[in-house]
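Same chain as my last thread, 301 residues:
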Amino acid sequence: MTNETESAARRLADPATLARIAKLELRARAVVEGIISGMHKSPHRGYSVEFAQHRDYAPGDEIRHIDWKVYGRSDRYYIKQYEEETNLKAYLVVDTSASMNYRSGALSKLDYAAVIAAALASLLLKQRDSVGLALFNAGIRSFLPAAGTPTHLRELLKQLERIETAPKTGISDTFHDLAERIKRRSLIIVMSDLFDDPAQIMKGLQHFRHRKHEVIVFHILDRDELTFPFKETVVFEGMEEEGLLPAEPNALRREYLRLFEAYVTALQRGCREMTMDYAQMPTDQPVDAALAQYLSNRMRV
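reply #2:
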């Protein structure tokens, strides 16, 4: 681990970092509750007020929950299950591909995503929700199931501090895999530079929506990627094994910005059509300000 990476890792667990965003707690709670309106009712192994489904009787089940009417018709014992109020489950999905290492300022895209993940985990756990973490590049590299225990934040931070990048990205396949792994309806928060084919990304995100998950996409971008400020002749090096490319930036800038705008527009349109939140997170914007801007926009909507 490099000195810069170690420094970034320490910032994740720095109480001052989390304290700066603590003022967002009330606003975050209101926003999250709005996002997950109706999500706290989910089929669960409990007995409450609203019928959900039947399941086979198993030794140890209370006899009073047997559906005797169904027994009279089928001569088999079935237990009535109900929906009960449960806390939210949220999954933080962080891209650890090599392109996330790019930085033009103090924080790389990966550092920035990790700080956002740590902040959101802290906020969600404070309001007694459960949080899980998935780290991915070419596929899922680490998967921490959602939990809401007091020690869970420390384990989640350890995972974020130990991030190792890999050259390739497999966003679409990763999303399909995660959608199958996460069985219960949850809030999925994606933090990635989304450097992949937008159509394939949308197919992966659509799988989450097919599973009834709510989705927030935080598009983590360096200011260089947004503005293409290069002026002198340079050699660009692909961070995911694309090789070297000598280029004259002034000749490329207009076409790059045109293609980049089309790419972002495709992502925004796809998210809007699937009723998912999309928010750009430039890494030169303070994390607390970026989250505050997103939360403020969400509340206005």
